[in-house]
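cron nightly-structures :: item 1 of 1
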Amino acid sequence: MLKRPSKDETEEDLLRFQEAFLQNQSASSVKIIKQSHPSQRDVVQLSTAEQSSTMAPIGISGPPSYPIKQSKFLAGKRKKENEDDNDPGRRLDDYEKKHDFVTVFTDAIMEKDTTGIPITLPEQTTQAFPSVLHRNTLMKDRKDKKDVKAGGSLFARQFLAATKSTKVADSKVTIEPTTSSSMHNPPEDVVTLVTGEGLRSDNNINVKDEVKKIHEDNLHKLSTMSKEDILSEQSRLIASMDPKLVELLQNRSKKSNNTDKIKPIVESMDVEQKLNDTVAANSDMDVDVEKDEDLHIHDNCVHTEPLEKEKLQWMLAQTKDKVKSTLENGESARFGFEGELITKESDIPAHVGLHHHGMEPDAAGYTIEELFILTRSSFPQQKIVGLTTLAHIFDKDHKDEYRGKLEPVIPNLLDAGVLFLLRWSLDDHTLAVISSSLHAIRALVVKEEDEYCLDKISSLYRGYETPSFEPAVGITDLKESEKSQITDADLVHNDAILGLVRMDFLPRARYVLSTCRIGANEVISCLKILWRIGRHSLQLADNVLRCPGLMKYIIDNFLPLSWKSLESEDSIAQLHGYPLWEAMKLIRILCTAGRNITSTFISQFQLISRIVRYVALSPASLQLPSERACKLFRESLKTWTLCLHYGIASSSFDDYFSIIMEKVRSLYRVTLFPCQMGNSSRIDQLLLSEFQTLVEKFIKLASTKVQHGKAMETKVLESSIQWNKIVGLVDVIYDCTKKWLIEFSKCSEDSVTEEAIALLTNSIQVISSFFEGFKHQNTQNKTVIENLEEMENFVYNFLSKISNSHLFSCLLQSFSNLSYKYSDLNSQLNEITSLPRFLYAYPCNHPCIVTGYFCNFYNTLLRLALTIINFHRGLAGKFKWLSLHPGILEVIRNFAAYRRTKSGISGYLNRSRTHLSYNLIKLYHVIAATDDNDLLIHCEIYQKMVLVILNEALRGDEQLVFDLASNHLIERRSFLAGNVSYDEDTLGNLFAITLTATDTSKSLSYPSNFVKTMDDAISHLQSIRGLIIQYFRKDSVMLQKSIDLFNFNAYQINSLVITCAHTTITPLDWMFLPLIDLYNASLNEDAMQSQKKSDVVTPETTNVVINTLRLIFLLEIWYPNYMASIDITAKIARISCTFLIGNDLFLEPTIHLYMEILLRLYVQTNQLSDTNFTTPIPGVASYYDLYVSLITQYNAVSFGDYLFATFILQPLQQRCDRRLRHSVWGEYIGIIRHLSLPLNKLLFDIELYLTPNESDATLINKYLRALIQKSLRSTWSPILYVVAIHHINHFIFDGDDNVSARQDLIREIRRHEGEEWVTDIFRYIKVLEGCDRSLLLSTSISPERETFIQQACMASSI
């Protein structure tokens, strides 16, 4: 034998072993023997030398053959095939031998003798095939439970029923109908002993006839008996019967009624019912006879033989009383399938499907909890119902249809986790559930009205700048490590859209679009959700673009370059392969986010080529439904225009100049107001107006090349546009504009349309932009507007006709009639912090949206006038009508009376109004510089409008605010145009009390005349203007971004998204902010360390404080209504920060003077009632902390200053926060000794400190402890001494409760007999002004007080 290879053998050794083995031709050392008996296993035996020699074939060279072990499955299969060929008898013998047993058979098998059985032919039938056995037929025939058992199969039951019918037919037994009715026949399942069928007779008597005869005799006898006789006989019969038998009969009757199988035996149902009632009454058994007439079980329902009524109670009809009691106790709102609110009074039938077996099966509708349960169901139908209903609820809540009926629905549902349920449902494998989930998510996060308003605004001036719909508490700016620590629930609570993206919605949306092949509506819902994600922030817009395969699939399938013809939108089942305007809008939204995203679309997805494919031909040639084709055409133009904002697609002007020129020339065929304005004409006007916007951006890019050529030479050369081609386009538009202006001047109000005004507006906008760019061109080309004479002709003969037209007056009148305030709180929605939206149910009804087209038209006229005046100063007087028209003056008055309310992101709707007001102010000042005779009388109105814009302007308009604040706010002629609202009597009362300086401080000389103070402030207007410029230029980055957007510096614009759109640029109290900034700087550790080295306040800081106080003083005097919108508590808190900026800064005479005047203004009687130091103050974390800082500062550096003391005493009034009084009389009681302000120097009424009486026993004890410890004396702090005496006296003698505490105070006071304050407490009557001690005391203690004092002392002795 050969040895086995070892592990050290190489491959060559193995080959050598193989050759040796083949040469020896050795047999295998083992062989497999197959045993035939199945109980034995295969045996492996070692073969001997003899066996090996016999097994080896002779004459065959090579390796021997070895038995191969076959598979048992294969062996069984082959064995079966072999057995099929054998004889059956042989197989039987083999089987017996194999299993070692013998089967015993009879000698002969005899068949049944059928010779005596008659042969019957089958019945003739018209059916070609035998009748099919139906389950319902079988269930109806199942009456005899002895014959057909419940456990039998369907075949067995049918067989038994057929056998029974055959026997009846063979015996030829027929039942003749009786004269009464078929229902007289006794029931088949009743015991035969009772019915009489079990009786037998040897005589040839028909038993059934006898039973029938007996039954008729009984009925005849019953009919002759009275009711009393029947009841008497029934009672006697029951008494004679066995009680068990009576119970048996009652249970059988009850069972028959429940199953509805027993039919009445007697004809008179009333008689039988009486009998049953009597039996139940006389048996004294508590048997509930349930009425289950409404409980019908269909015959097709299987496994209902044992009827379980308890489980089927929910199927019964509910009574009104039960429904009413259930709904009265319920608190959850119920909704229908369409999201409608179902009230308690709603009478909804059960067949509608709103009744279900929930917690309240008798109440119609679904609660939110039940809808949540449905969305988590394992049945797709229930999931679809829940998701669809939630989608309708979201839509109705966005439309504010639940106002006054429910609490805010969407915020509560978001907190309850509805977004998680919707996202989990999107992972379902059922296509219908996926579709319902998409619709529900779309209804939750997308408000259709908001999208409509944003589309309308995009056609206005600077409308492509859109706000960011990110929550005010932004999370996108956090670091990745900080974001990862936020849980999903907290993230959804703060930012629903960001939470949806974290749930991997984008990859799932790609999978659903690409793999699931969803329907048309679902594709649109998915794209709209992506709209909302793209509007959130730059980061999420970039996430949409970077999601692997998402945008590529959308562009390839929903923005193709070729597609089949589609006649109508109704025929759309699958939108894949057709261009969608929703997909183009998604790209436009993403491009709004940033320059890099736009570059990616243009370079990687050939965006411009696709756009040109859709706009090169008319919408009718796109082989799409007309509405979809027009929207696709318009969205493509908008996307192309938006790309030009970054200067990226400027080369497309030369590439597609022929197409652009063809579209521009088509303007010749368009009239502004055709005789019969059809739908097609309005669509043409709308689309061509969008095309003019595209041309206007090309003009701006052409002019940008010259203006920024030196700074951005490389980029400009890549996107250069020839000015000669621009001139050719403008010539056509210029001619059309003149024609349309003539039509406008002759048109009536009835024929005006929004599309016509938009067409005229954009054509004027093109001319205005051309004028701006033409001024910077060094060209010798002679065009129609190149010389001044042609410009004057355009103004005199065309623009001036607008002012005299009747149409313009009518439009301006309707424009002014709309209220600009739109601050009706009833129309505002509840703000959703995690899901920002416009706070109006129907923002499309907002005045700035309804009149947006005319507002844009007027704004364009103003910009054109400013451009022409800048080009030709001599034409300034020709545009006076734009700023002095009676209609526009009325608009300005309404605007000046505007009061800002908390509107969140909804303030973006007013942006067109802000731009209109800005251009009106600019035009007014330009014209006033040349001719101010007619304009001075309206100067006050325009100045108020400047102040309103400073408060209303949102982020993105920093350039407007800076321009107005630096150039027009503190202009002497405009600022002082109003009248001072304080007369001589008011000023006399204002300075009746003079705060003189203390002996320790430097004496101050106060002006005897209030006018001198105003003259001082007016003489420093230029210094105040410098302060304003310095403050508004602080955020230089945002200011430069706004300047680039305003001037259309395309190559400097990186994004068109307005961040932080929830807040205005300046707060309402912007004039106080320099003081707040200095106060915050003083709290900085670096500032504190530097102050330790030098306590001297810098002159720059002093000038900032003085000029800030002067600005506040001038605004309070000249514009008190404007300053009244600021909370009086916030004013006092901000002014008091001056004491904390520097140690002795408040002692500077000018600062001390203005602070005293402002304090006098703020503490007037009509404003003191508005102070509330418990309300939050913007910019101040806690007024309590600020007050504690003031107390500490007063103790350190006040020198007993009366003004500082007045600021400390003012919050100690009884109506103010009690915590402030506790801090002064408790932890900081040392300050009391330094509050030496006399009572006659107090600027407030002393009653404010005395009324109402103090009821806090702890604070009373602090008053008394200060007197006992001699921390409070009448000579040190007369005001607080009076306060303490007054409240202790009234607490003791006028208190209604807490007698023990009052007696304890008396005993404590009596321990200090002889002290002056003890006598003052017991004999105090009231405060007496004019007296040295300021207290009116009685000559002796009154008897009532004396009695109470004695009772307190006696209680102590007891």
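cron nightly-structures :: done
Residues 679-707 form the longest helix (29 residues).
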